[in-house]
Every structure is written in C-alpha cells, then in structure tokens.
C-alpha cells in the first residue's frame, strides 16, 4: 500500500511538473489527475482486499436486465 | 482532433490484426468443447454476424462522414445524453484493453514467467502500448502494416509444419448437426472478437478511401483464418484433447517434433501472439484515449495515455484466474458486447432518421 501511494504521489508530481512546463491547459491537468486517481482507488481496493470489481458489476447489471 | 490519414490496406490490416489479436489463441479450445467436430463452422457464422453488424456501423458513419462513434453520440444525442453514452463507450474500450492485457498476462504467468508478478508483465506491455498511443493512429497503422503480413506468413508456415500430425480419425464419429443449437452454445464468439471491432469505428474518420471494403474484408478474412485454425487444431490434436486445453495451438507447437534439427517452434508462435496482442491493446487504448479527448475537448494525448495505465492495470488484475475469465466470457461476453455493437448504434441510427425527418418539417414551417 505504501508503495502504491508512493508511486501515485511521484506520478502526480512528475506529470503536473511536466504539464506545467509544456503549457498544458487546466482541463488537461484535471483529467490527468482524475484518471490517475480513479486508477489509484481501483488499485487500493485490490490491495485492501475489497476490490471494486468492474467485471462483477457488469455481470450483475446484465443479470438484472436480462436474466 | 488528430489529422491522421490511413489507406484502405492499413484499415484492412488493422481490422484483421484486431480481430485475430487474442482470439486465434484463446478461442479454439472453448468452441471445440462446445461444438466438437463442427467447431470450425462457428467462426464462419460469427464472421457473417460480424459483417452484418459492421454494415450497421458503416451505414451510421456514412451518414455523418468524419465522425467516430463517440462524436456521433455527442452529435445525435446532445451534449448531456451523448456524453453519458460516450462515457459508456470509454468504459467499454478500457475494459477491453484490460481483458486483452489479462489474456496475455495469464498466458505468460502460466507458461513462461511463472515467478514474475502478473502486474509486472501487464505494466511492460501497457507502457509500450501507451507510447504507441501517444505517437498516434498513423503510427499504430504503420506498425500494423509492417508486422501483420510477417506475422500471418510466419504463423502459417509453422502451422503447416504441424500438419505432419494430421489424422482424420481425430474428428471422431460424426454427431448430429444442429446449427442453431451450436451457435447458441458458442455465442461468446459473436461478442469476442467480432462485436469488439466496434473499437475500430474510432479509426473510420482517418480512412481516405474504400473504408467499407477494407473493414468488411478484414472481418471476413479474420473469420476464415480463425475457422481454418480451428479446423487444423481439430485435425491434429483431436476433439477430446483440444477441448480440454486452454491454449491448444501452444501445446501443439510444444509437443510436435518437426524434424531432427527444428525444435521449440512454440517460441515463434508466442512471438506472433505477443505482437498481435500488442496491436490489439494499442488499438483499444487508442480508442479510449481518443474518446477522452473528444468528450473533454482536449488536445494532448500524452497525458491521457499515461494515466490510462493506472486504470487498465488494476482492472486487468480483477479476474481470479484464467478459468474465471473464461467463465465470465461464456456468460456475459455476448450480451455486454452486443450492447455496444448493436443496441447503441441502432439507437443512433433511429435518432438520425428522426432528426432527418424533423429537419424538412422545420424548414417548411
């Protein structure tokens, strides 16, 4: 978990610095951080053994509507 | 908005590589288990279905040239509902990329790098694909143009060498032939890989000429090749054994002695598969990145492709094993893929008809 948080922080800091230097728009920075955060939450849920299982969610949705 | 230009040959190869990508390695075992000696007919039926569904997308995009499927959602359904449907397509592209990378990870973990963490294998391939995505659609098309003919030729040379083990007795005694029942039991192949080609609608705006021919030919040729592969696997490995193997082609290449000096041709088969998977992964990741750019009106792909790895990597780890992956595929793949391949495009076609009908009325008023 500590490794994941470390990777996440390093990625956010590095990508933000690069984006500021390359003159990226605020929207681009926000989307970048939002996507990385969604991924970070998904990864954390796996490490904490309570995965946000998208496959299962899709399965439940299909079962709900079809079966 | 990217201004890439793709030739019809490149589009044909993109479609062929995408459709064959993971399927030629994974599908044979499953459909032979379901359809026994008639399994080679299933890909032909599924290919026909894929062509019919592709005709729907081609009809839709021909009404609005220069727009991909997500842009069509935004144009026809309006900014709010269109955004929602666009996000659904994003989920589809990201899920697809995750499944593709998981198929590869499972194979490498089971057969090659047993002690390496599966996430490390996934990360390596995702990084390479992200770099291809950053370079753009033309790079993916050129990569495919360079690799696909070589891969197809090499694969078939190795496969023809395996024909030494051919035995008609492997087909076993003929069973009763119930085509509809066989299609129903193997319905997952209609979803994976033929409905998944909806991903390639994101490349349609870049194709300069003969889009319809190249796209439909790509699906048709892929269906014929998968059917041939299944037929050869049946003839060499047999119905019973191949239906119990996860990767029958790999096992086949491992076991068959080719000659006194040519050995371990499974390595070549593996390389062919890795390259094919990289192309499929790049296409699905590109579709996701292009979709995000279109939905949020962004310019730079670099900072979309890299954080996508953060999302695809954990999703690819969700299946417990290759068995749960196959089970999920068997149960839900057809329904899930059909929603994106038939339901939403059909809805878009209906909305486009209604809009066209409304326009003359408004003009008359």
TrEMBL record, chain B:
Membrane-protein topology: Multi-pass membrane protein
Matches recorded under Gene3D superfamilies: Amino acid/polyamine transporter I
Subcellular location: Membrane
TM annotation in the entry: 12-32, 38-60, 81-101, 113-134, 146-169, 189-207, 214-240, 260-283, 303-326, 332-354
Record keywords: Germination, Membrane, Transmembrane, Transmembrane helix, Transport
Pfam families, per database record: Spore_permease
Family membership noted in the UniProt record: Belongs to the amino acid-polyamine-organocation (APC) superfamily. Spore germination protein (SGP) (TC 2.A.3.9) family.
PANTHER family referenced in this protein's UniProt entry, alphabetically: SPORE GERMINATION PROTEIN A2 (PTHR34975)
Name of the protein in its database record: Endospore germination permease
Native species: Paenibacillus glycinis
